[in-house]
Write a structure and sequence with these properties.
This protein is α+β, with helices and mostly antiparallel strands and 189 residues long. The protein has 3 helices and 6 strands, in the order αααββββββ. It has a 3-stranded antiparallel sheet. A hairpin with a 2-residue loop joins strand 4 and strand 5. The C terminus is likely disordered.
């Protein structure tokens, strides 16, 4: 090559093809339909992602609300569990008082306080667990001893049990019947 035919330094070397042919060979232009299909597919993907995110957020909100309600119930349950021994003591105190005191105002006042406490607990969703005469159910009853009576039936209640809505706060402590003629424990067989 002669000096005139040589390109200057830094200048691109001439190729066998004209520059327009290189551009066409590198990227053939897509058709309008192809671009439209590509845009639709991308829009569908974005829509699916958005719907998934919306469903996840909705589930998150529902779960947080359930957890908040459960925490509120648990706080109430803890308070109620701590109040139940006071209620038991009040019941025992009222049961041990002589009937001749029934006309005194302080006795009637204590009885009214007891009723008011029961009403407050009932309004909070606390219910007594039915025990005497019921079939023994380990979900609601705790057997503390066996005694004479129909087998598998609760014959006496030692301590009252309570539920908060559908959850057992404290099972009822009960005496379970062992059968009509059978002795309690250690008897002959």
């Amino acid at each position: 090559m002669s000096e005139q035919e040589r390109p200057a330094e830094g200048a691109p070397e001439p190729s066998a093809h004209p520059p327009e042919a290189d551009v066409e060979a590198e990227a053939e232009p897509e058709t309008v339909e192809g671009q439209l299909d590509k845009a639709r597919a991308e829009a569908q993907r974005y829509l699916a992602n958005w719907q998934r995110a919306e469903a996840d957020f909705s589930n998150y909100k529902r779960r947080m609300e359930q957890e908040r309600d459960e925490a509120r119930r648990m706080a109430n349950a803890a308070l109620i569990i701590n109040v139940l021994p006071v209620l038991d003591d009040l019941e025992r105190a009222l049961a041990s008082l002589d009937i001749s005191l029934a006309g005194l105002t302080w006795f009637d006042g204590i009885r009214l306080i007891y009723r008011k406490l029961l009403l407050v607990l009932e309004n909070a969703g606390v219910r007594q667990i039915e025990a005497e005469g019921q079939a023994f159910d380990p979900r609601f009853h705790e057997a503390v001893m066996h005694g004479p009576g129909p087998e598998g039936k609760v014959v006496a209640e030692v301590q009252r049990g309570y539920k908060l809505h559908d959850r057992v706060l404290r099972p009822a402590m009960v005496v379970v019947g062992k059968g009509e003629g059978k002795a309690e424990a250690g008897g002959e067989r």
